[in-house]
C-alpha cells in the first residue's frame, strides 16, 4: 500500500498579527475542502509552548476544527514539517489509516525580534550552546568564513539570495515578493560578520495543509511519496570542518543515486535558512565548484526558499512538500515543470538533523 499527497493548501507567509494558531488553522483548512475528509490529523509546530503558552496544541486545533478523530503533534525543530509528512505516510502505507491531514502551523511574530530570535535559537543545544551565547547566525557565519577560506567568493552567497527573491516574485504565498540587487548587500545589516540580513531567512507566521492518502486521485492530481529518510548529524562544535553538512549531504546523495536523479533537472526545495548552507551542500555534492551559476538548475527553490518565501519554522517542511506537489500536478504560481520527480530537503540548525522526501508524479 502506498502513500499519496492528494490535496493541500497554504496561507501566505506573513506577519499575521491579528491571527492566532487556531485562526491560521481555520484559514488554511477552509481553502482545502478535502482536508476534513480524514481519519487522523498530524500537527507540526515547533514553538507554541513559547510563543502561545499552549501545551497540547494538536488537541485544541482539532477541537477548533470540529474534528473528532485521533490527533498528534510532531516537533523536530526546523524539520517538524517533514517529520509530520513522514509520519502521515507511515500511517497510511501501513494500512492503519485511510487519509491523514498534515497541518503545519507556526505563530512567531507577536514578539519583538530579539525575543523571537531567542526562541529560534533554542533549536540549538541549550546547555552547551545557547547558555554560552552561541546563536544560529553565528554558526552560519562560521560556515561562510570557512567556505570563503576554501575559495568561495562572497558574491556566491549573494547570488543565492538574489535568485531566491527573484523566484518568489511569482509565488502568491511568499513573504518577500520583491527583487534585491547585489548592491543592496553593501547596506545590509550585519548579523555576524560576514553574514548579513540579506543572507538570512524571512521569519513569518504560516499554515500549510496536506492530505496524505492510501490511494491516488482518479484524475491524476496526486503524487506518490516514494522515499523518506532522516539522518542525525554531529553537533557543530564537534566537527573537524564546520561547513561539512554531512547528514544532509549523505541523505541527498543517497536519494539522488537511488532514483538516478540530477538536482539540475528535478524539482528541488533545499533548506536555505542562511545562504552558506545550500552553497555548502551543493559544493559537497559536486554541483558547484569555483563558480556559482544557479541558472543551471531548472527547478531549484522555485518557491523562493526559506530566504524569500519565508520560514514559519515548524510549518516550513509542509510548505515545501506542498510546493513540490503543486509543481508536479499543476503549477506553482506562474511556474510549471515537466519532470516526474521532486525532492524536499529540510534540516534543523547547522545540520543537527536532516530529512529528505522524494515525490513522484
Q: Any idea what the CATH superfamily of the largest domain is called?
A: Thiolase/Chalcone synthase
Helicity level: 25-40%
Q: Any idea what the CATH architecture of the largest domain is?
A: 3-Layer(aba) Sandwich
- Treating each run of at least 4 consecutive H or I residues as one helix, how many helices? 11
What general outline do the C-alpha atoms trace?
Answer: globular
List low-confidence stretches.
Answer: none
Structural class: alpha/beta
Report strand %: 15-25%
Highest CATH level, the class of the largest domain? Alpha Beta
SSE layout and pairings?
Layout (H helix, E strand, L loop, with lengths): L3 E7 L10 H9 L10 E5 L3 H4 L5 H9 L5 E4 L5 H14 L5 E8 L6 H9 L14 H14 L4 H15 L21 E3 L2 E2 L9 E8 L9 E10 L13 H14 L7 E3 L6 H9 L20 H4 L7 H14 L11 E8 L4 E8 L1
Parallel strand pairs: 2-3, 2-4, 9-10
Antiparallel strand pairs: 1-7, 1-8, 4-7, 5-6, 8-11, 10-11
Verbal overview:
With 361 residues, the chain is α/β, with parallel strands linked by helices. It folds into 2 domains: 117 residues, Thiolase/Chalcone synthase (Peroxisomal Thiolase, Chain A, domain 1), CATH 3.40.47.10; 203 residues, Thiolase/Chalcone synthase (Peroxisomal Thiolase, Chain A, domain 1, 3-Layer(aba) Sandwich), CATH 3.40.47.10. The protein is built from 11 helices and 11 strands. Strands 3-2-4-7-1-8-11-10-9 form a 9-stranded mixed beta sheet, with helices on both faces. Strand 5 and strand 6 form a beta hairpin. Helix 1 crosses helix 3. The chain is globular. The model has no long low-confidence stretch (mean pLDDT 95).
Amino acid at each position: 500500500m502506498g502513500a499519496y499527497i492528494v490535496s493541500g493548501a497554504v496561507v501566505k507567509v506573513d506577519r499575521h498579527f491579528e491571527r492566532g494558531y487556531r485562526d491560521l488553522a481555520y484559514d488554511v483548512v477552509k481553502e482545502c475542502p478535502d482536508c476534513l475528509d480524514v481519519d487522523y490529523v498530524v500537527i507540526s509546530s515547533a514553538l507554541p509552548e513559547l510563543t502561545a503558552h499552549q501545551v497540547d496544541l494538536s488537541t485544541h486545533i482539532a477541537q477548533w476544527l470540529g474534528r473528532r478523530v485521533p490527533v498528534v503533534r510532531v516537533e523536530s525543530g526546523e524539520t517538524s514539517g517533514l517529520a509530520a509528512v513522514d509520519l502521515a505516510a507511515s500511517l497510511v502505507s501501513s494500512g492503519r489509516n485511510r487519509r491523514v491531514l498534515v497541518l503545519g502551523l507556526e505563530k512567531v511574530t507577536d514578539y519583538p525580534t530579539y525575543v523571537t530570535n531567542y526562541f529560534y535559537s533554542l533549536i540549538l543545544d541549550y546547555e552547551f550552546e545557547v547558555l554560552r551565547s552561541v546563536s544560529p547566525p553565528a554558526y552560519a557565519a562560521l560556515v561562510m568564513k570557512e567556505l570563503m577560506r576554501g575559495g568561495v567568493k562572497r558574491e556566491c552567497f549573494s547570488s543565492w539570495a538574489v535568485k531566491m527573491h527573484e523566484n518568489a516574485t511569482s509565488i502568491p504565498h511568499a513573504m518577500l515578493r520583491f527583487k534585491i540587487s547585489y548592491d543592496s548587500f553593501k547596506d545590509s545589516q550585519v548579523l555576524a560578520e560576514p553574514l548579513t540580513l540579506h543572507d538570512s531567512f524571512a521569519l513569518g507566521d504560516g499554515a500549510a495543509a496536506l492530505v496524505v492518502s492510501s490511494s491516488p486521485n482518479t484524475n491524476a492530481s496526486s503524487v506518490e511519496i516514494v522515499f523518506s529518510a532522516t539522518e542525525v548529524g554531529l553537533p557543530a562544535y564537534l566537527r573537524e570542518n564546520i561547513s561539512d553538512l554531512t547528514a544532509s549531504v549523505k541523505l541527498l546523495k543517497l536519494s539522488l543515486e537511488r532514483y538516478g536523479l540530477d538536482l539540475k533537472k528535478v524539482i528541488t526545495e533545499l533548506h536555505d535558512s542562511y545562504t552558506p548552507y545550500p552553497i555548502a551542500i551543493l559544493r559537497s555534492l559536486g554541483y558547484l565548484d569555483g563558480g556559482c551559476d544557479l541558472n543551471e538548475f531548472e527547478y531549484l527553490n522555485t518557491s523562493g526558499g526559506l530566504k524569500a518565501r519565508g520560514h514559519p519554522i515548524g510549518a516550513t517542511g509542509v510548505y515545501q512538500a506542498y510546493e513540490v506537489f503543486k509543481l508536479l500536478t499543476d503549477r506553482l504560481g506562474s511556474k510549471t515543470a515537466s519532470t516526474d520527480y521532486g525532492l524536499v530537503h529540510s534540516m534543523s540548525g547547522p545540520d543537527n538533523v536532516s530529512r529528505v522526501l522524494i515525490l513522484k508524479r
